[in-house]
Amino acid sequence: MKWTEVTVSTSNEAVEAVSNILMEAGASGVKIDDALDYQNLKPDRYGEIIDLDTIPHVTSGAKVSAYFPETVFVPEILPTIKQRVTKLAEYGLNPDPNEVSMAALSDENWATAWKKYYHPVRVTRYLTIVPSWENYQVTQPGEEVIKLDPGMAFGTGTHPTTKLSLQGLETVINGGEHLIDVGTGSGVLSIAAKAMGVGAVEAYDLDEVAVRSAQANLDLNPVAKDVKVAANDLLKGIHAQADIIVANILAEIIVPLVPQAKANLKRGGYFITSGIINDKFKTVRDAIAAAGFQIAQHTQMGDWHSIVAYLPTDED
After folding, report:
1. Domain identity same for 67 and 179
2. Residue 141 lies in a domain
3. Would you say residue 157 has pLDDT above 70?
4. Cα–Cα distance between 65 and 215 in angstroms, integer?
5. Distance separating alpha carbons of residues 244 and 203, to the nearest angstrom
6. What's the total number of domains in the chain?
7. Cα distance between residue 105 and residue 167, in whole Å
8. Is there a single domain that holds both residue 280 and residue 177?
9. Residues 181 and 300 placed together within one structural domain of the fold
10. Which residue intervals of 143-234 are DSSP H helices?
11. pTM, entire model
């Protein structure tokens, strides 16, 4: 089969949104070459995992490539893709340079094109994300490995917003909790939560493609075999009393989620949000505080913010 590769050059902050746009346009997979991911691979306190000089990469911004089968007439959908990417600016995301290109690929090239970009990456002290085809051995006691297939996922799990979410989860999980993952995407947060000892996990995403991607990644990780994943619009129609709700989504979507999260959390529960760019932080923080949450923790990585909020008990 012949394939067409469509590549969008964009900013780091728009990577997840652009990936969604391409998948919704009918792509069979995405490849993300993000300069921030390369920076994350530099030697740090966790030690160097791979030889950085062997990794092809962009030095600034990001390129999101999607693969369309020959049954899709790509020139017809390119203007819509370009228009939707441009419109991201209305949601507070910088899409620039917003350059869209396409190229023909053989079946063999499509199958291997994105694999060279993904390698094991330590994302927290105890969590390492490993591509499904890599044979990786843990390097220290307590290290947990999360297997992901980035070819069908929304991102690699190493973006700053995801890392902030994972760090937030590490601070509040004690074991046995009931957790809801809103906007699960690749499913990485649900898998990590199970690896940290959470009991029941429900994962939701509006996009059916994301649900299928998440399920495929859950299947790669035995620890997450009982995670329930389904399509849903945020928490509409969900009636639960969870201990933790985590949402790594756009700031504009977090705001309407706040009252839904409050209604689905036990008193004393935690609401972890990420995906918050600099100029949206105050809006999200104020919405969370106005709903009666207490801000327990605020962390930042580059231009991105994460909030861990606590729903007070009657005794607080």
Report:
1. no
2. no
3. no
4. 22
5. 12
6. 2
7. 39
8. yes
9. yes
10. 160-172, 188-195, 208-219
11. 0.73
- Residue 235: which residues within 8 A CB-CB, separation 6 or more? 180, 182, 204, 245, 257, 260, 261, 263, 264
Same-domain pairing of 58 and 180: no
- Do 237 and 182 touch, CB atoms closer than 8 A? no
Give the DSSP letter string of 81-96: HHHHHHHGGGGT---T
Residue 174 labelled as part of a binding site: no
Q: Are residues 176 and 302 in the same domain?
A: yes
Q: Which residues contact 282 (CB under 8 A, 6 or more apart)?
A: none
CATH number, position 178: 3.40.50.150
Q: Are both 197 and 303 inside the same structural domain?
A: yes
Is 205 marked within a binding site?
yes
Within a domain: residue 85?
yes
Cβ count within 10 A of residue 263: 13
Question: What is the DSSP track for 264-300?
Answer: TEEEEEEEEEEEEEGGGHHHHHHHHHHTT-EEEEEEE
In a domain, 170, yes or no: yes
Side chain identity, residue 245: I
**What does the alpha-carbon distance between residue 288 and residue 259 come to, in Å, rounded to a whole number?**
9
Is 250 in contact with 229 (CB distance < 8 Å)?
A: no
Find residue 53's DSSP bridge partners: none
The answer to the question of residue 252 being in a domain is yes
The annotation status of 183 as a binding-site residue, yes or no, is: yes
Segments forming the whole domain that contains residue 231:
152-310
* Residue where the block lists tokens 């959908």: 77
Using the predicted structure, report yes or no on whether residue 14 has a pLDDT greater than 50.
yes
How far is residue 145 from each of residues 19, 105, 222, measured CA to CA in Å?
Answer: 24, 33, 11
Tell me the three state secondary structure of residue 312: coil
- 191 and 252 share one domain: yes
185 is in an annotated binding site: no
Q: Give pLDDT tens digits for 80-128.
A: 899 899 999 998 889 999 999 988 876 556 556 556 657 788 888 889 9
